[in-house]
What we know:
This protein is an alpha+beta fold and 669 residues long.
Amino acid sequence: xxxxxxxxxxxSRAFLAFFAALLVxxxxxxxxxxxxxxxxxxxxxxxxxxxxxxPGYRLKIDGExxxxxxxxxxxxxxxxxxxxxxLVGRSGVERVKESYELATSKRRVNNHEARRRSYRLATGAxxxxxxxxxxxxxxxxxxxxFPEPGTAExxxxxxxTSFRMPAGxxxxxxxxxxxxxxxxxxxxxxxxxxxxxxxxxxxxxxGAGWVFPALFRKGERWLLISEAGLGRGYCASRLRHEAPDxxxxxxxxxxxxxxxxxxxxxxxxxxYATPWRVVAAGTLRTVVESTLGTDVADAAPPGAVxxxxxxxxxxxxxxxxAQTTYPVQKxxxxxxxxxxxxxxxxxxxxxxxxGEAKLxxxxxxxxxxxxxxLVWYNxxxxxxxxFQTPKNRLLTRDAMRAEFTKLREIGVKGVxxxxxxxxxxxxxxxxxxxxxxxxxxxxxxxxxGATLPRGWGRTYPNLLTTEAVRxxxxxxxxxxxxxxxxxxxxxxxxxxxxxxxxxxTPFCVDGPGKIKRRTTYGYELATTVVFTSGIQHIVETPxxxxxxxxxxxxxxxxxxxxxxxxxxxxGEPGKLAVFGRLGADGIWRVAGINGEAEAKTVEVDxxxxxxxxxxxxxxxxxxxxxxxxxxxxxxxxxRQGNLDGKTRRLRVELRPAGGFVAELTPVxx
Length: 669
């Protein structure tokens, strides 16, 4: 930002004017709005400038308004792009058609089609900003582009972007935690519980805003709002604390979410494109099956390679920090080998309790058993008080390069980096540095205590998973978290896990410790399919899994961590989630979890699994099924049989907080 006092005065006046404009509401738009429709013509965005020259938009499906008149624009330190603008040009309508692969999500091959148009805006002084809209059959994405080359750093003070819900809309939202709160001042980490089915416009319970993705409903229309394509120079955004009249505005991070004295907000040189604002919209099935959050993310560079996905053994949840020792980690490597799992994660304090020399021995031992080793790091500088080591080794790109080169030479295949300090611009740049240097070293990446990845798995295929969820580790801490687990788990497939891989760390049937599990065995097993992550770190230990039936262990040996295709089959946020996922082995796994304290009957129409033009996804004339679910005595039950004919339905009785998995193997044409 400029340092002379005159510039600060101009900046302050612009800032105050910006907020004054927000307080009076959005003026009635001029009569003529320009419309851009999706390829199937059902979804339409209408762009307009109102009488004050403020840009806005509305979103419709089949002519029905699903986002009412909402704001566009940015306030920079040297120009106001929220009002007094003129439309000086528009591009033609561009057809977008692309195909890309993901190794970490619900669908390996993703085909994206959309229609795109840019609107060229200018201030009275001639400063340029373009608004780019992209409309697909499953929703809308838009971003701002500053096309003029420049050498001076541009500073964005505020973003006017808003999402105005229709009257009567309902919301399923996770409050943003307050910066520097929580254990060792490690918040925010996207680890709060969701507020469910609240009135749109309800202020956030913690006063710090709402995180992405944010889910809304009006009638039979659903909206999932998020951010994607977050590059260097910008901060991670959120929805603001208050939403008067159901109008949610983009908010920037708390000033404390930074490194040292670095400002949290966006700063960049132009030309520059901001992150995409993403709105998946339609039926609940359309929203949940959408890949819009990765469709608009930046493509991976040529030659980028995704590490292998897979399951991982992991001692920490039930053994704790003190058991990150050589003999215990050797035991868990044996466990991974016996289960045929790809990875074993060696968690915090390995540097002091094992040491690099013995780590090298463990890596060699694991390699001989066809198991790859992952190791843990603390991201820390001084932004929180987390004490676990190794720490302070990844603070600069040179330090990362040296550490990752050493790990590669040892034979380590990936790193888990924990305890980030927030959503400020400096941390966004740190994430990019870690992913880029990890890719250069051939290392898989996993972020914990972290922000939502916002489509980064497409840009950096070595990012196999990210936490950004109140995962299983919280259940190990206190009974209150176990009590809320059934509902919480049934929320995640509709929110956090829709676009990005989620390292919830599923499946525990024994304990941990004195904690009383509130989910059934079937629920726990089903989460290995219902939740998606490029690496699934299994909580259960060798001794705990040894107590289970052979068919449960066999299922965990076979279940993939990456999927060819996904179908949403039934459910409602926080109440029920049933999905079908196709593995590379040609087997459909159908799984469901019941979030409520009442028994339910689920009847799955298997016709939903077959899709025109996707021969591998279709079931045969006869389907052999194996169903694993909860027995009447609280144990397991297995059922096997054939499903024949054109009309095939799988009927399952779900216990309260129960679940099931079924493997469906096609036989014949």
